[in-house]
Amino acid sequence: MPDINLGIQIVPKSKTRESYPLVDKAIAVIAASGVKYEVTPFETVMEGPEDRLMAIARQAQQAVLDAGADEILVYYRMQIRPGEDVSMAKKTDPHR
């Protein structure tokens, strides 16, 4: 299965907790997963097999809920090329 890019933005809603520490819980799950990832101001982008990334995304969502979010809004963006890897580096290295 080729690697894809999956961008995930989790927007926590809570009446009693600050948003950034809740988002940090999701990023910690992604960081601990071992997949290649990059945190940006609006989303975190991961690279790897689609099934694995979706499983990590679900774990990240649950971590935010477990940390006290009343609810979450989750936005995904994926780039998939059948039979060919999608690389973050190939897209961003020319601009660094």
Automatic annotation (TrEMBL):
Residue ranges of every copy of the Thiamine-binding protein domain listed in the record: 8-93
Coiled-coil residue spans: none
SUPFAM superfamilies, sorted: MTH1187/YkoF-like (SSF89957)
Superkingdom of the organism of origin: Bacteria
Pfam families from the UniProt entry: Thiamine_BP (PF01910)
Alphabetized Gene3D superfamilies for the sequence: 3.30.70.930
A GO CC term attached to the entry: cytosol
Similarity comment: Belongs to the UPF0045 family.
Name of the protein: Uncharacterized conserved protein YqgV, UPF0045/DUF77 family
Organism: Cyclobacterium lianum
